[in-house]
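Re: that chain you flagged

S.,

Sorry for the slow reply, it's been a week of failed gels. I finally had a moment to sit down with the sequence you sent. For the record, here it is as I used it:
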Amino acid sequence: MTEHGAPNRRPARGPDRVAGPAGPTGAGRGERAPSKLGLDARLVRKARRLAAAAAEPVIELARTHTTTSVERATLRLAGLSGADPAYEGGTQPWANTVVDAVREQVGLEHGVA
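Prediction finished late last night. Pasting the structure tokens below so you have them in one place:
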């Protein structure tokens, strides 16, 4: 409590928490603070390794495959806007025109953007 009766909102510090330059850290240099959830650190490391191994094929698939929609969205995020005036009076977005041309000429295997 503060001198005015308000609760003190500063985080508690104990033997396992030491204030460092970036805030509370582990008890010793290079050590991690104990798990707030009481998890075994070895099991957490093992779970992270297994998750990384399980995700690797999905990540590789995403890196080597793309779709027309993904490429169009990427071009739009990169700032390509407006419509192609040569297409039916300017009704087709430039992103569509570019992706269609790349797909027809060289394929989308490596992406457009």
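What I noticed first: The first helix runs from residue 41 to 64.

Talk soon,
D.
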